[in-house]
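Researcher: Go.
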Amino acid sequence: MADVTRFCRMLVRLFLFFVLVRSAQNAKEQRVAIKFLSSLRMKASRIHEHLEIVHGRLAYSLSTVTRWMARFRGGNASTSDLPHPGRPPKLTADKMRHL
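Model: Structure:
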């Protein structure tokens, strides 16, 4: 029984790792798309529509698209997210790789 429990825990950790990695990739893809489409002078609402078609439920909200567009137009060329204040998560993608 202990082996089954250990195996189940390992599966849950593996699943969470893939969700974290996919989520990060999805966010990066959306930011790159926002940067490109906004450079073509496309409106935020239209960019949001495109993101919804491609990413479905995982698409950024219209307000998030607008925020990223403002960052890019303000001269910030990076598609990386800024550090967040507060306590860092206990389980990071790097820690998951070592499990």
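Model: Helices lie at 2-39, 44-55, 62-73, 93-97.
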